[in-house]
Design a protein that fits this description.
The protein is mostly helical. Helices cover 60% and strands 6% of the residues. The longest helix has 31 residues.
């Protein structure tokens, strides 16, 4: 957004400026954010709000954290502490974007079957069971089967679960749940990706990450509730 230095804007003009990127933005929503203590624009002698360029950048950052990261307002309020208008981004968002950039630059490590077994301590019979139930998925390479870093991480967790008597067939419930969860996310997100440019797809990635984190939190809470009501608690 191009800034007009040393100029203040009324609330209606601020909403018009940002409406293109945030279609659901309204005057009442900006007022609500102010009531919640996330913004504090100056007032004229007549009591009208006047937004500086820094105020508008702050509002944009709040809206980004809501839209791209699905953060609740109380969390956003905390993230905005110490916010610097010169950077136009919270430390939180800068760190997340840096992590995403670093992750994309990494070449995923792969393991041969022998290396995977050695790394995870899983037996070849157990690995066969994990493959049978679709928990891990080997890929073919010139020198034989290989496994991704994600598969090896799953195998490591499975090895710890075997100490409690867990077998590959028991993990089918998690595989089914994960598949259904991804299908749900696709139904929600896919329509938003049609005809979108590269920049918009980055925002979609942020939404998927936010959905995943919320779903994981929900699973934790539901699991805790189930344990409270179980005979083993």
């Amino acid at each position: 957004m191009k800034n007009n230095l040393n100029k203040n804007f009324p609330i209606g003009q601020v909403v018009s400026k940002l409406k293109g990127d945030y279609p659901d933005l309204s005057i009442s929503k900006v007022r609500y954010l102010e009531d919640e203590g996330l913004m504090e624009p100056e007032r004229t002698a007549g009591g009208y709000r006047q937004f500086s360029n820094d105020d508008i950048l702050r509002l944009e950052e709040i809206l980004k954290l809501q839209k791209d990261y699905f953060l609740p307002l109380q969390v956003i309020k905390e993230k905005m502490r110490g916010w610097d208008a010169k950077k136009s981004a919270t430390k939180f968002r800068l760190e997340v974007e840096a992590e995403n950039k670093a992750e994309k630059g990494k070449k995923e490590k792969t393991y041969s079957a022998e290396a995977a077994l050695k790394e995870t301590k899983v037996t070849s019979e157990q690995l066969k069971g994990l493959e049978t139930y679709g928990i891990v998925d080997q890929k073919k390479a010139e020198d034989g089967k290989i496994y991704s870093q994600s598969d090896v991480s799953i195998m490591k967790v499975f090895y710890q679960l075997t100490k409690y008597g867990i077998e590959p067939r028991h993990l089918r419930i998690y595989e089914n749940l994960s598949s259904k969860e991804v299908m749900l996310f696709e139904q929600i997100i896919s329509p938003q990706m049609r005809g979108r440019g590269k920049e918009s797809k980055k925002k979609i990635t942020g939404k998927v990450k936010g959905l995943t984190e919320l779903a994981e939190r929900l699973q934790q809470l539901l699991r805790s509730k189930a344990l409270e009501n179980s005979k083993i608690s």
